Amino acid sequence: MKTSALLVIIISLFLPFQVLASENSSGALLDLTHHWVGFVAIGIFVLAYSLVIFEEKIHLRKSKPILLAAGLIWLVIGIVYHQHGLSQLAEEAVRHNFLEYAELFFFLLVAMTYINAMIERDVFDALRDWLVNKGFSYKQLFWMTGILAFFISPIADNLTTALIMCSVVLAVGNGHAKFIGVSCINIVIAANAGGAFSPFGDITTLMVWQKGMVEFSEFFALFIPSVVNFLVPALIMQFAIMKGKPKAIEEGSHAQIKQGGLVIVGLFLVTIITAISFHNFLHLPPAIGMMLGLGFLKFYGFFLRKGHKKDTEENPTSVSTKKPYDIFDRIAQAEWDTLFFFYGVILAVGGLGFLGYLGMASSYMYGELGATPANVLVGILSSIVDNIPVMFAVLTMNPEMSHAQWLLVTLTAGVGGSLLSVGSAAGIALMGQARGHYTFMTHLKWTPVIALGYAASIWVHLLINGG
Length: 467
Hints:
The chain has 467 residues and is mainly alpha-helical.
């Protein structure tokens, strides 16, 4: 990769560029779609994203190749625009993309910090142990974990929700590979479907909301299609679940919510309301409201630390008070690889759009194929690549289409990743967590059933929300 970058620099310094746009100072963008610089940028992106797709095989974190790709793409763009005296245009474009990323970064960082704070306070472990100890049958647990995943993911996000519910399945599965595998598939579908009707459920829905394409209350128009997407495959897969009940957890080993855990849950809900209010009523970025919510959590963390100090003085041998609560530990536990990957995606895809490729794609997909086929295709592409770059590309193209079609692409990008185990963050995470029980092939066997739910959800959306 370093060699190719060096070649680009050397060639750019000594060879004249031939571009399709006229070389004037009118401020017109250069059309580089048929220029070798454009081809180099496409090659860099494809190579980087190939490494992202095989992350689990090569053990290279996904942020590393995509960060490198983003920098190299804007390097070649900067060189060609500098040679034509249009550096200001490239600067404005990259600043615009960086600002979009900054808003999403701070929003996600706060959300991740709250989730990590709840994990540290054992909120989710207590929920898991409560489920396990209630004496539900395997089939009831299949439905309980799926339903909870569907309703928790709109608030907590689909990745975290899937991991929590998977831990329940692993705790009660007791080595029953088929139960664990089918339940994990159900959880992935449910988490992705639940995340599709909420701005907080998935990064793609958050992008659509912050971009102003769909208002907060309008996401709930996708509730019924999302339910259909979850229920159709679940109703079929339930017949693969065995009869019987798992053993309950031994008395005394149940997780207990630590001091302040429920208060943090309440503060998270208040933070969400704050972010929504900033966006809907004050027309300010939701990230500002989320940062205010981080202030709530940091102040509450101060009182937790004071309470810990008092408890330690009164009972120095207490195990539960050995480690004080530290808000910066929770921030440090954020999914930094995902956050940096997101940066790389926005800058790299933004660069390809600046070169003119997204305009070409939009012209073909939404001009020739039509909005509905194009948006259905977006969902299928999301299962192969990743819904983040696909959705960002659509938002960057900003095709002319009805509001119902914007809802449709929000739905398909959200639930399309369920078609394959590698199509969503939830699926990839569960392949690691339930290694050996939930695999690519395990998921692939049920893909026709999942596709049935995907098609049914699109049909229901077009029926009730129009096209």
